[in-house]
Amino acid sequence: MSETESAAAPPPSPTTAAATERKPRRLRGHKKGAVTCCVASSARPGVVASAGEDGCICWFDLRTQDVLFTIEAANKPISSICFKPGNEDFVYASAGNEIFSFDVRMGPQSKPLQTYNYNRDEINQIAVSSKGFLAAADDSGDVKIVNTIQKCLYKRLREAHTSICSSVQFIPWRPWTAITGGLDSKLSAWDFSRGRTLFSIDYGSPELQNGSSSGSAGQCFNPAFVHSIAVPEEGILGGLYKVCAVARGDGAVDVVDLEYELAPAKSKGPRAATSTMSSKRTELGDGSSNQSQVKRIHLDYTMGGHTAAVSCVAFSAFGEKGKFLVSGGNDASVKIWDWSRGFSSETNSNAELVLDIDVKKKVNWLCTTTTDSDNLIVCDTSKVVKVYNFP
């Protein structure tokens, strides 16, 4: 980050200063290198799996001090892991251009049940849908959709992005829809059964750059690459919101109303076809709910947000599920946002940064879980997994 960017950031608030004193619990199990990703079990509260540059998957139970077991999954760094929805006895991991599936009940003796190598380039993220489809986003910009039941390639989303495709997620309440993000600064939704895009938002477009507060305040020296996408389970916060969160390379986090973007163009009026913004106050919210219809909100450093690229985002599993949005960045900080306050026109209030944690190192990935206490799991550039209690 340049000196100009550092100077533009506001001084920390008392809440931020207090938060920096938090000391994490450290989970040790990886042999070397950084921990690249983690996933929390919903079927087994308090159970977390992490993967790293050592090619290993470590299995932790937060009620104990030590790693339960380690699976030597690959001879190269693991870039992404995820559980099989509805049956978390099975976990998927990507390494290089391959994807492996494991039965975790076999413990450290677990060997790959299946190997998929349809991607031609290095895979950045994988996701599995409730229907058994596996999506893999890679450096070529392509996304491969694999039918894990029939064990065959189902669809190629060719040239999904003009640069690296960094992230992919399925939309739980739309089983034939996936959403992708890339280093071409685009967020795209797909009907993957037909291999066609449903909408695309270009965060690098002049309209969106000029409309965001960071674009005019000196922060946006870094492109608005899409580094990570989070899609919550259906029915968070009483089913009121069907959204996704976007981690951006310019330090901002956006929350997008997916149902609005996916609605037929005629129901949204003449602006729908471009998916761009004419005014921050109408199309792209600034965390405020003063608009009559907020379709996107924008959380940046003017609200206490990140001062460098945001690497990952996740909706909270603790408290009221999905109430909080957690983001981690290259500024070695983790932010927890009460995001829905700014998304609803009924609250007449702003989205709020409720906690800022200095984790000392760049954040690679994070997830949340609930046990006897509410936990935030952070993977950074070290070989240990850090656990913070919330609040």
From TrEMBL:
For this UniProt record, give its keywords in alphabetical order, as a comma-separated list. WD repeat
Q: Which Pfam families match?
A: WD40
Cleaved signal peptide residues? none
Task: Give positions of region: Disordered.
Answer: 1-28, 269-291
Q: Which InterPro entries match?
A: WD40/YVTN_repeat-like_dom_sf, WD40_repeat_dom_sf, WD40_rpt
Q: Which domain of life is it from?
A: Eukaryota
Q: What Gene3D superfamilies does this protein's entry cite?
A: YVTN repeat-like/Quinoprotein amine dehydrogenase
UniProt repeat feature WD, residue ranges: 303-347
Q: Does the keyword Cytoplasm apply?
A: no
> What name appears for this protein in its UniProt entry?
Transducin/WD40 repeat-like superfamily protein
| Protein species of origin | Urochloa decumbens
